[in-house]
Amino acid sequence: MFEGVYDVVVVGGGHAGAEAAASAANMGSRTLLVTMNLQTIGQMSCNPAMGGIAKGQIVREIDALGGYSGIVSDESAIQFKMLNQSKGPAMWSPRVQSDRMLFAKKWRDLLEQTHNLDFYQDMIKDIVVNEGRIEGVVTSLGIPIHAKSVVLTNGTFLNGLIHIGEKNYGGGRAGEKASTGLTHSLEKLGFESGRMKTGTPPRVDGRSLNYDVMEEQAGDENPAKFSYSSTTPLKQQRSCHITHTSPEVHELLRSGFDRSPMVNGNILSSGPRYCPSIEDKINRFADKSRHQIFVEPEGWDTVEVYVNGFSTSLPEDIQYQALRSVSGFENVKFFRPGYAIEYDYFPPTQLKNSLETKLVSGLFFAGQINGTTGYEEAASQGLMAGINAHLKVHQQDPFVLKRNQAYIGVLIDDLITKGTEEPYRMFTSRAEYRTLLRQDNADLRLTPLSYDLGLAKKERMVAVEEKASKTQDLVNFFKKQSYVPDEVNPILKQKDSALVKQSDKLTKILSRPRLSRKDLENIPAVKTFINDHAITDEVYEQAEIQIKYSGYIEKEMANAEKLNRLDHIKIPDDFDYDILASLSHEAKEKLNYIRPTNLSQASRISGINPSDISVLLVKLGR
Which among 67, 162, 282, 574 has most CB atoms closer than 10 A? Predict the structure, then answer.
């Protein structure tokens, strides 16, 4: 059925698989996307939303690198919110509520329009390896597919087991069968595997809810968007709502704990710490009398509602009784109950920083197979795996993002260096250079790199160059232009900020905490410059951030430069740590297992001390 050899075969059509297939094909590789169900490409298995704290930054980075997630999110959004705006810009995080069905349709449309990309529906049960190099995959029908590289993005499908109360059955998600055979195939090659779990809440009929007793959560008054391309911001939005559990609800839930697999010990695998089930919340936060429930619509043209915050594997009768005691849910009708799912994953310390496996050349892992959770984390890994699979086939150096370049760099470095024993989720606190890695400058940081790879188109690069140029022009204007006290004092008085007695540069005023760019835009000199140079609000915001936070930005850039010095000290692949008598037994064990590529990565391995790095420095030569 399949003539010749594919450059890249991508297994799985979720967020990771879709981005991997798109990036490899767009870079020129002959690519095949194999998935168990072509009707569920890009499906949102859990909540109908993209972005959020740190996750929104990742979506912006994917878009800046030429991925599709930002475009799909914009074209299927029903609400947009910029989170954390009361904090500094390093914490601002975009998020959209999505139309679930439209999201998947947009993904399918974009992939079908992608040159070099073929599709096939079947389950992959085996991989073919010869002398340590990938040669292809085998489907459940026994059909061989020859490939120069393979990207596995199996999500929660590897030996997936769904739990609802004391009932369980095989499945990758509700209504779909599990993937079998592949775990055994990988283990035979020497890969280590483990089990993780995640969960999802009930879906209910929105017509049965009383929204009048809930708190409305509207979108932003002037919604932005994810993609730096020409997608259109929302002109109308749908609201979400908030309600709460109560002591009565908690008691009803507790009555079923003896039948909950996540409480009674029937599930022993690790679940997501930062997205706990309602059972976990009640146990871990016993002092709390209530927990928030976010009522999220699933789209423009459906009454289905996602009950965010009520993830559970309790028996369906307990779910129903407890939810009917939540304010606004007294007459609720279920579409389907919540459930937990256990699945196989492969500890990501078995990967190189390109997401290629150390054991098999040309084999890449991306997404939940690496122990992560979340659409955004999966999509970013898929993008990077697809890029690097293409580069591998064409005998080019891998594309690796550093921790000071992108949240994606932080994510992958954390996974391959530290590993994870619970589903990994990205947070702003994981990034030591988050002032540099803001959502507003992802295009400035990453589009030039994407353009060099051949992913970002010329018009994208031109737009970035224009934005950078105009931003710098505006910053220079504020540094050079003086203000007149009579012009700025009325503004300062209104903002309850100290008045000025003599002229100084505009940067001094804009740097004040209580003032923003909007306060200064009607000063005659500023207004004239903005009009004459066609300065957009996006450029104005960028200039304001660079001026207001220049001290923090410069400090982080200096710290990043120190880290980069260790990045440049490479460690040979065959380096023998055992010959270094000064290294502790633990250090040798960890270094031999992780096999870091440079001293910077070695310094981040858990259990490696500064003294160990000093020993390596001496051995490698300063």
Answer: 67
Choose between 267 and 528: higher pLDDT. Answer: 528
- Tokens describing residue 99: 């139309």
d(CA 285, CA 552): 36
Q: Is residue 230 part of a domain?
A: yes
> pLDDT digits over 339-360, tens only?
999 999 999 999 999 999 999 9
Which position has the token pair 């420095």?
Answer: 617
| Token pair recorded at residue 296 | 């999220």
What gap in Å lies between CA 291 and CA 261, rounded to an integer? 21
125: its two tokens = 């049960």
CA distances from 361 to 130, 355, 392 (A): 10, 11, 9
Contact 43, 157 (CB under 8 A): no
DSSP letters for 215-283: EEE---SS---S-SSSPPPPSS---EEEEE--HHHHHHHHTTGGG-TTTSSS--SB--TTS--HHHHHH
Number of domains in the chain: 3
Q: How far apart are CA 306 and CA 300, in angstroms?
A: 13
Q: How confident is the model at residue 29 (pLDDT cuts 50, 70, 90)?
A: very high
Q: What Å distances lie between residue 542 and 301, 438, 444, 473, CA to CA? A: 37, 10, 10, 11
Domain that holds residue 594: 568-620
217 domain-assigned: yes
Backbone φ, ψ for residue 116 (5° rounding): 75, 5
Distance CA 590, CA 579 (A): 15
Tokens at residue 312, please?
Answer: 């559970």
CA atoms within 13 A on the CB side of 504: 11
Q: Under the phi-then-psi rule, with left for phi > 0, alpha for psi from -120 to 50, and beta for the rest, what region is 54?
A: left
Task: Indicate whether 208 and 329 sit together in one domain.
Answer: yes
Residue 209 shares a structural domain with residue 334: yes
Q: Cα(419)–Cα(404) distance, rounded to whole angstroms?
A: 20
Q: How far apart are CA 343 and CA 162, in angstroms?
A: 9
Residue 290 lies in a domain: yes
Q: Do residues 320 and 62 lie in contact, with contact meaning Cβ atoms separated by under 8 Å?
A: no
Q: Which long-range contacts (CB under 8 A, 24 or more apart) does 468-476 make?
A: 468/444, 470/533, 470/534, 470/535, 470/536, 470/539, 471/539, 471/542, 471/543, 471/546, 473/533, 474/529, 474/533, 474/535, 474/539, 474/540, 474/543, 475/543, 475/546, 475/547
- Output b/e per residue, 76-108; b: 16+ Cβ within 10 A: bbbbbbbbeeeeebbbbbbbbbbbbbbbbbbbb
501 and 613, same domain (yes or no):
no
pLDDT in tens, 163-221: 999 999 999 998 999 999 999 999 999 999 999 999 999 999 999 999 999 999 999 99
Nearest to 65 by CA among 559, 520, 406, 512: 406
